[in-house]
Design goal:
Secreted effector protein pipB2 fold; 7 strands
Length: about 180
Amino acid sequence: MTESPAHVHEFDWPDRVVIGTIGRPGARTFYLQVRTGSRIASVVLEKQQAEILAEKLDEILDELMALEGNPHSVPASTPVELVDNDPLDPVEELFRVGAIGLGWDPTTAQVLVEAHRMAEDEFDELLKPESETLLVRMPVGATRAFTRRTREVVDAGRPMCANCGHPIDPDGHVCTFPESG
């Protein structure tokens, strides 16, 4: 069986890259959204994927800052002119994200994010063997802004129970953690 070519939605130096949500806390859908001009791509990811994505991107930037002789100016915090608190642009979902790959391109001083389509089930790859990927290349300042917003969006969810660490639903919470004392 020959492998079908990959479909890549590529954004190089995009105007906007954000994580945003639709829905109320406890029932939110997380989106990674990228825009260049009027071209918009939105993919669904899990809250944990968004949280880890921000963490790993910050680690890449911190490592670049600490690199001896690094010729790239990596900001330690989010440049104020890059703060983006606007809602998502209109969402038309491309796919649900499975694996995420990260990288650094020293020739363009850009961070790379590859979000790969998740197979719907074990037969999905047999029926639709073509892969689909969202590839985003963004400069270091935009990456810092992206990680800041992502952390804020993730933290804006349901409050966590101090006893068991699970989210507290608006309808109440039954804690399974035994009281100490």
